[in-house]
Amino acid sequence: MIIKVNENKKIKKDDKVYVVADFDGTLTKGNSKTSWSILANTNLLPKEYVEERQELYKKYYPIEIDTSLPFDYRLEQMKIWFTLHAELFVKYKLKEEFINKASKDFDFIQFREGAEDFLKFLKEKNIPLIIISAGIGNFIKAFLEYKNCLYNNIYISSNMLKFEDGIAVGIENNIIHSLNKNEVSLPKCIKEKLANKDEVILLGDKIDDIRMVSEEKRNKTIRIGWIHDDKSSLDEFKKYYDYICTDDESYDNVIKSVWKA
Fold this sequence. Notes:
about 260 residues, Rossmann fold, 7-stranded mixed β-sheet, two-stranded antiparallel ribbon, 8 helices, 9 strands, about 35% helix, about 20% strand, globular
């Protein structure tokens, strides 16, 4: 089901639009594993990693979702959480080959219905897709390659694990977490491609995902949000999203709703 909060917002010119999307829970199904949790559900890393990873989750996830806490405090805590988790990959000597193995050999990540067709649709219309994810970019890239969907109109801004001699040694550049995802992290070459485009489609599954597009662009942004099992947040979503999709909604219907006939 699609709840149309502001159905007057529609795309008018394909050559003026680009898409900014979250990955985990947005392009993928709500019950898919996140790219941070995949390895904990395999036997590729020792049980000590799983236990330590779970302790971090229990401590920091409640802070991530508690919007009653000061934003700056949550911001600081998310950076600590993601940094500590990345350090576990180094501690337990994550092998680069495990990324590809987990992306292909385990059925942990699944596209939402119609998402593959949506990516193909954007490619055919030459519409840039910027994936801004607090997940692990290596998994996202490997998954898109595995699904033959890593098109040349797609740019991934995410946490890229760095490897030396096939072993994890840290994360490249700055940590991207759920509260600091924004277009500032995009390289100059990508910003130049977007310079003449003034319509944006934002796709997310959290309230904080609206930060992926800067405030000055939000009046020209169509915001589409996926809401998961917790329907209690629906009223909150209505304050920020123009279209709200329930977890089983297809991207085919999203395209029909948003693109002007």
